Sequence to fold (215 residues):
Amino acid sequence: MRSKLFNIFGLLILFLCYLSLFVFALKQDLIGAQETMAEEYKNPKKGFDASLINQIYRNEKYGYELKYQSDWEAIEAKPRVGYKVEWTGNILVDDELQKVTFLEKESVDWQGEFQIAVISNPDKLNLEQWIKKNEPQTVMGSSLIREISETTLNGKPAKRLSIFGFDHERIEVISLYKGYIYRIGFAWDNPNDTEVERHKQIYNQMFLSFRFIGQ
Fold:
């Protein structure tokens, strides 16, 4: 009888210990949530402000211009020197002749990024041929392109590619102008980006502001 009482008493003590730990963990979660809410209140997420898209980037050599946000920076790629590993926004790769990346200066989780590349087309391929030749693929040779649709870039025929980026969707718009391939790229649906909707609006406005000059 006594041993049974000891067993019941022991189980009761064990239950109370687990209950205490659970209550402590719950309190810590509540404190963490309150601190997060307080921080977000002091530093709210930036909303989309179309008036900030007021800087003009213009490239006379390759004949285009567009507007971008005043709190973003424009990074011009340069020819690769040596074999140092670098971010692709800093260097020209493959047949790229010119490339500029517009990068958000400040971000919480995921930097906004909008890129334009001008690419040589020595074989004078049309859009369909060029896309087929330069199709992004997995290491096993499977295509990463999920969908290709018709669109325009400043009134010029273009192709919009939805590309599987493993953890997000990437959009590339490909157009042909004066013998060059123009490729515009940006992330789209992205679970890693807590400000994805704001970034989408910025990308859309930048894309719509794109103009070919000297036509």
Observations:
- Confidence is low (pLDDT under 50) at residues 21-45.
